[in-house]
Specification:
This protein is mostly helical. It has a two-stranded antiparallel sheet with strand order 1-2. The longest helix is centred in the N-terminal third of the chain and has 25 residues, at 43-67. It has one domain (12-315). It has 13 helices and two strands.
């Protein structure tokens, strides 16, 4: 170990700025909405869900530009946008979704809906009844299979509008937070970032569902996604790839509405199968980390300006201490 350099540690003051601002703004917005008896199933409720996802980006911009006066690119790694890792979310998530739908049909008393166009369920708050009826009638008359239409619209959504909001959110979690916590290593980053991410989402999920079970289930879901997102960031060296994965999973989540049970209520089979596959992915990632890679997944550790200055000072002092013959 080189004793002439300062050990790189997480910059907890930067992390504190981010988390205090994030939770203060988020809880204020949700608290205000609920205090005035806001209905999450209305347009203002949908708008709040959208605004919620861009809060991390706004805070990261403020920290970089106004607190530390440094480039915003500090939290962004673009990497190679055409690498294989950027293509995995585009092709992998649709395949994953179809696999879950096919598997759902193996459940007893399960029907897979092949008639409905999901876009009208997803955006019914914003669409008038007249527009929905007219457009759906035109689609049925055209003979376009609903499953094909749903697949194409989810891909388009995942590569466009959803990607904007997913990138805004990932700027905070797998961008800013991962960069600042990277000296702690892969395992700690997975649990710390995943846990805080789930905690941040909990009030929003509660506002939308008023159901503690949904909050707990989604917390478990976020903890399963955390190692996948961070491992993808490690492999791709790109925040774009992680944002694509986040965006595509969000776009295809609506496919859970296509599988349902006609008798007793229980957890959606599509969601059950997605959890099962995510658990298998997690097992693969942890096996790769602990047993395949000699030193495990090594996150790239960034030096902050204070550490850089300390290391430069030590280098200058060490140079001054060297005999003059060694400087020639």
């Amino acid at each position: 170990m080189n004793t002439n350099t300062t050990e790189i540690k997480p910059n907890y003051s930067r992390i504190a700025y981010f988390l205090i601002a994030l939770f203060t703004i988020s809880l204020f917005l949700i608290g205000s909405f609920m205090y005035f008896d806001g209905d999450p199933q209305t347009r203002p409720g949908a708008a709040l869900n959208i605004i919620y996802s861009i809060i991390p980006l706004i805070i990261v911009i403020c920290i970089h530009q106004f607190v530390y006066r440094e480039p915003l690119l500090r939290s962004v790694e673009v990497g190679d946008p055409y690498s294989i890792w950027s293509l995995i979310p585009i092709f992998g998530v649709p395949a994953f979704t179809l696999l879950c739908l096919v598997g759902a049909q193996l459940y007893p008393n399960i029907m897979v809906d092949t008639e409905n166009y999901l876009i009208f369920k997803q955006y019914e708050i914003f669409l008038s009844n007249e527009f929905t009826i007219t457009t759906e009638a035109l689609l049925r008359k055209s003979g376009v299979p609903s499953i094909l239409f749903n697949l194409v619209q989810a891909i388009i959504l995942g590569l466009s509008i959803n990607l904007i909001f997913s990138f805004s959110e990932e700027m905070g979690w797998r961008g800013f937070m991962l960069r600042e916590l990277s000296p702690l290593g892969f395992t700690k980053c997975v649990f710390i970032i995943g846990g805080i991410w789930a905690l941040w989402y909990a009030p929003l999920i509660w506002m939308n569902t008023q159901n503690l079970n949904y909050v707990l289930i989604n917390t478990f879901y976020f903890m399963l996604l955390s190692p996948i997102y961070i491992a993808l960031k490690y492999l791709s060296k790109s925040l774009i790839a992680v944002s694509l994965m986040h965006s595509m999973l969000s776009a295809f989540a609506s496919f859970s509405m296509l599988s349902y049970q006609k008798t007793a209520y229980f957890m959606n089979p599509f969601f059950q199968l997605s959890i099962l596959f995510l658990v298998l992915f997690n097992i693969s990632i942890w096996a790769y980390h602990f047993f395949i890679l000699p030193n495990g997944i090594q996150l790239f550790v960034y030096e902050d300006e204070e550490t850089k200055r300390a290391n430069r000072s030590k280098e200058r002092i060490n140079l001054l201490k060297l005999p003059k013959n060694n400087l020639k």
